[in-house]
Amino acid sequence: MGKEMKKAVTSNLDISMCTGCAACVNVCPKNALTLAPDDLGYYRSTLNAELCIDCGICSNICPALSLPKNQNETSPACYAFVAADKNFFMKSSSGGAFPVFARETFKRNGKVVGASWKNPLTVQHIMIDSETDLPKLQKSKYLQSYIGDIYRKVKQELDNNVFVLFVGCPCQVTGLKAFLNKDYDNLLLVDIFCNHAPSQMFFQKFIQSSFPDGIKEFEFRYKSDDENFNDYACKITMPDDSSIVLDRPSENDYIRAFQNNVMTDTHCLNCKYQKLPRFGDLSIGDFWNDDYRERFAAEKGMSAMLVNNKKGQAFLDSIDPEDIKLMESVPLEALGNNGRMMLTKIRKKTNQILWQNTINEMTFSQSVAFATKPNHGIYAGIASENNMPLLSHDSNFLKFNFDPNIWEQHIINGKTTLVMVARNNYSLTRQYVTMQLSRSLEKDKSYTLNMRLKVKTNSNKIVLYLKDSGTLSLQAVTVFNVPDNSENKYIKIKKNFVPNSDIYDQIAFVSKQFKDNGSYIVFDYIYITET
Q1: Contact 126, 178 (CB under 8 A)
Q2: Is there a contact between 270 and 17 (Cβ–Cβ < 8 Å)?
Q3: H or E element, residue 23
Q4: In this structure, are 13 and 149 located in the same domain?
Q5: pTM exceeding the 0.85 threshold for the entire prediction
Q6: Is the pLDDT of residue 414 over 50?
């Protein structure tokens, strides 16, 4: 019978809450702890009881058990940021804040630590000391990074008076802070706005499913020089050096799964490191607000930046103004989804359970469909077996899904009516009114939309989209002009269309097209039939 280690972190922490931050691994005086993947591929703390002396140091510093002291700002200054160096900007996921920070670090003869591809399928944290190696650390990598013993290497550099810039997810930054257990003037901690970090196993299954011959490189958030920019475009370099670009989430099952949060594990669902006050000196991430991106002419991305303490502000003040194209103060509320993540946490939904129950039994694509779509998941087959129409509703049967902070639904004079309320100046960015189809449309098949409605809005045109219920993937079906005195005139629309993907299972309007409170849409009927 093995030894019972009562003080070890593995005895005191619910393993599902282990983030793989590796603070315990790095602090253990006997190297009794390692990181090992669990059944879903997430790195968790694993104990070798034969080496453990049950000293309890690991439990004492584990941030999942007890957060380190944090005196950072609860209402940090917030900025929109774009780097002046075009190469920095184009090789970054958003506005290029990180490479600007790295350049300042190298000017101080310092070292930079961040997530790098180890090979085409795995990511780990490494340390670099020159701008030549900077591309290794740039760009988002939507999977969990292996920390290993990098905290020990950081401490060694700090103790030798070397300036270190450490960039990671909030749990990793908190893990380093807990491991060091003291403040260093020559350390700058930068945490990123993190939705969740899927396991490396998930990514590997995606590659094996979509590219059975393997890949040479994978680049998330690819930026091209042409005008067809997409925030979630991915560039894949094949073994023969040819490349393809998946510029729509509808083409990329991994992005679909990521956007829908189905790969979110328990430790991310209950994240306590993302909230305010942050643990980094600075925080950076995407600025998800189309209004501000248009205002600052930053169509291809803009960084959001939080200054969490005086050290972060001092570092920011030391950056050469020539390296900065844009740095404008903005309200924290303008960050959109990234801002809301700091105040709320993702709620566990059935689709995450469906995902976890199927990813080891189905192909990646099958698991995504099963988890994200009711017609591919627990209700699969019901619509087709009963020969249900795709969409066939008179007004009093229409049921839309929407954000109640933006819309209200009423029956007025027997007609389904959506009225815009937009409480508390709520952001309309990436907000949709949707209706579920009975099943997904088929790619390259012909369909007909028949619709009769009237609207009150200041917009001149309204676009009706097909939408994937699991992601923000859209395809425009029809654009119709809004006539004068439109609130008194029904608009009748008949449109043939052909889906460019087989993932669409909703119709949608963009809330942003109805700009003012009191705007409304009155629906008489909507039908979609196969042609």
Answers
A1: no
A2: yes
A3: helix 23-27
A4: no
A5: no
A6: yes
